[in-house]
Amino acid sequence: MEAQGKPNRLVNQKSPYLLQHAFNPIDWYPWSDEAFEKARSEDKPVFLSIGYSTCH
Description:
The chain has two helices and no strands.
């Protein structure tokens, strides 16, 4: 993984899939109470990735 820019909340995760996205310019949250509390407090839906990755 090549670091570019500021890391998001995924930078400390153990999953190789999540780590691929640790430097995306998106405010990603790992599965956590914090993520659901934020969505609830802002009345926003949760966008859930099932973690599928493939080579092509």
